[in-house]
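Exam revision sheet. Question 4 asks you to relate a sequence to its structure. Input first:
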Amino acid sequence: MFTSNYHYMKAYKLYILIAGLLVSLSACNKQLDTSPSNAVPEDIVLKTVANLTALSEGTWAAMMDDFYGGTFGNPGYKTITLVSEAMGNDVALITTKYSFAPVYRFTQLNDKTQSRLSAIWNQLYRIINNNNIIIANVDKVTGDATAKQVLKAQALALRANTYLTIASFYQFSYLKDPLAKTAPIYTTPTTDTTRGNPKATLQDIYTLIIADLQEAKGLLGTYQRPAKYKINIDVVNGLLARAYLNTGKWIQAAEAANEALKNYPLMPAADYSKGFNDVNNSEWIWGHPEIPSQSDGSYSFHFLDVTSASSYYYSFMADPFFGDLFEAGDIRKTLFAWDGNPGREGHLQYKKFKFRADQTGDLVLMRSAEAHLIKAEGYARENNITDGAAALNVLRAARGATAFNAVGATKEQLIEAILIERRKELWGEGFALADIIRNQLPVVRMPYVDGSGNDRKVTITTPDGTVKQVPARYHTALKFADGTNFVANSPLYIFAIPQAEEQNNPNLLK
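Answer key, structure tokens:
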């Protein structure tokens, strides 16, 4: 059951803080110190499958529910989601609010000295290294053979997911240059004497990702997970679909996506407005449950939830042009409203994410809606218009949107429709910048003006019931900070490797 398994996670969060003395890991030299004098002895941590499972549970809890770098602006793994969305087309950020204005203006993630950059990097490589410890030792420890097999599979899959994140943000598209140097690969546990590795190519990273996922898939077999934060074969298929899509393996992407979505029917239209906060939603393939006593990850809702009175920052408003993409009858269209609150008048709310009453919200990591879109895109890019349109229209029908008319449509028209549908469906879930990089597109932000160049007027209702017209609010960063236009394949879209990492690992500069 959800509750008991999540309390299991909670119980082991303290364990990982202790075990972290032994396995506090990063990617190079001094930062790779894994055995300080007060560490838990290695033979205790690596003795049983139960202890390795504790390490796995603690790693997951820290990944999702620790503030990276110790700041509220980095609420766990969802930090990367927020960064990706803030750097895209469709979030018109309120820049006077806490934390994400430098990201939105493209002045932070390319600056090697920024603490957020270091926090993300260090956490990603800690996740990798903790899973490397499990992979290296699980076959040797005592315990149930099936438990060891499942644990190894989940460690392989989580390592693959982490490298997939790195490949998606630390280099341009694989389809631009698969041999581009990106970030180092580590597949074995590091120690304080480990020599830092040089950057690997995107090709090498994706080879490892796909190999890890294929091995995990073979090990999982018929494993029935106790809760949706656990990785099962459906999650692995979804991760394979993402990896295949990124690397241009179109048919494999469509087939893997089709396998991933089979057990997760698209939600009823009425559920779309419930706040995207419940891991039990029928189409969530992978998600993280939150409870009041362990809910740092829920802090991401403070940025995304723009309507709850309890939301602190409500800064991720929608670009009006994004709202214009939706047609009447689409359930998603009903989530838009012009804000009438003081200081926020004329911003466009998109009420997709909402806190629950207890100030928590479960964290979505993968949905069958995304799998339908990958399936559609895979077929479309293989010039299979019929099957690509059919996959797209399954999702559109579920949302109440008009079907794409495949009669006479070109491959390019279908792909464009799918990419727009990805923006509409996956808003706020972390795909905005990743898709811009993957598809070698420029960021597109425009002033929301009428034919005379004046801000368009919109009708709002103030808290006291007054109805009036005010200028629509839209993007305040329409170009890069130096005044140049957004372009495809800009280095300002790519996450930099932290300066401290380069200093500690000179092999990164080769």
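Marking note for examiners. Residues 2-446+477-509 form a domain with the Serine Threonine Protein Phosphatase 5, Tetratricopeptide repeat fold (CATH 1.25.40.390).
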